[in-house]
Amino acid sequence: MPKDKLWGGRFTQPTDKFVEEFTASIQYDKRLYHQDIRGSVAHARMLGKQGIIPLEDVEQIVHGLQAILEQIEAGKFDFSISLEDIHMNIEARLSAAIGEAGKRLHTGRSRNDQVALDIRLYLRDEIIEITTYIDLLIDALLTQAEDNIDTLMPGFTHLQSAQPILFAHHLMAYIEMFKRDKERLEDCFKRVDVLPLGAGALAGTTFPIDREYVAEQLKFHAITRNSLDSVSDRDFALEFLADASILMMHLSRFSEELILWSTAAFQFIELSDGFCTGSSIMPQKKNPDVPELVRGKTGRVYGNLMALLTTMKGLPLAYNKDMQEDKEPLFDTIDTVKGSLKIFAEMIREMRVNVGAMRKAAGQGFSTATDVADYLVRKGLPFRDAHEVVGKAVAYCLENGMDITGLSLAEWHIFSAKIDSDIFDCITVEASVNARNIQGGTARGRVWSEIQNVRAGN
Q1: Spans of the chain, pLDDT less than 50
Q2: Which residue among 63, 272, 279, 413 is the active-site one?
Q3: What is the residue extent of each domain of the chain?
Q4: Distance between CA atoms of 9 and 34, rounded to whole angstroms?
Q5: 112-360 maps to which CATH number?
Q6: Annotated catalytic, 279?
């Protein structure tokens, strides 16, 4: 009989050594120690309140768990693979330390609802921390937007020059993305913040437990309503991974732009040396390793989502050992997202903007052609006809190696008699930007107002 196993009563042979190592999760779920102890303290106090175990046992359990917490945080706790997971490691140490009282802790619960509780507690803590990192990134973007409220740049579609915009407006677009990421995580938090403890292995418990009391102790806003679902549900983890994947996609898109902008072809920005590396052979190189790595890590987070979706897709109710595979992708995603957000915020804050290069590029590629079409519409020409007129003017400029801003009034008259000398006031980059004075547009006043709205928490 395997005497070191808390579940070993019905077994007559020891667990195969390799099986023991293969099935153990302590290597990675030991990071749940704080949540496991918090949950056990709340559970023990509930058992005492309900008269299920003696109050003196509760005091011994609580003090024993607090001592174990101190040992773990001091690095004086030896985790054992033979004890499989964080739950059994802590419970075995508790029983060894305080005796029979420790053996009463597991009354009315199972490792199935215990691990569901620990993961929810852990993810709840991590979501709060991740949203603070999003706030730091948004603040860094806002600072750059404020500093560059008059910086002009080309806006792109299909990575081709399209229309001039403010660089601040471009940065504010990413702020909108990250605000949505934060909202998604806050909404996910609602479904994480539900107490599963009390579901037992799958059917509940025969003991008169008080789940509402435990929820109150652990600050859960609600309790789960079906014991089978309580122990087999990982939707909340999948939802988090999906939200994290979208967040990383936003960081990856931004990374791609930073990489492009920092090239010799663009020269729009310069990343601080602290976020770049050099080449082992080419002495002139300054490589944007941080955004490249964030772009690469995005695929890793996508993979974590697909891994857990694949794990869960064929599982019957209720708990199955497959579900042990939920932790590594979840933990890895949390670490990746936090690291990416933290380093991104610092990198953006130190980023230097080449205002002259951006301004020069903003006027290239016939970027104010749409403004000419709009001008003709205001003169009474239908938009589709105006579009054709300007298209012909662009073709003329291409043949003659010039931009539309270089056309004389006489040349404009080749294409439309409706064009007067006031056209020259409409086709500057500055005029183009400030003409888009609508809510959500790139006009300076609109962008500045939006910066202040976000600063105010709106």
Answers
A1: 1, 7
A2: 279
A3: 8-107, 112-360, 363-455
A4: 29
A5: 1.20.200.10
A6: yes
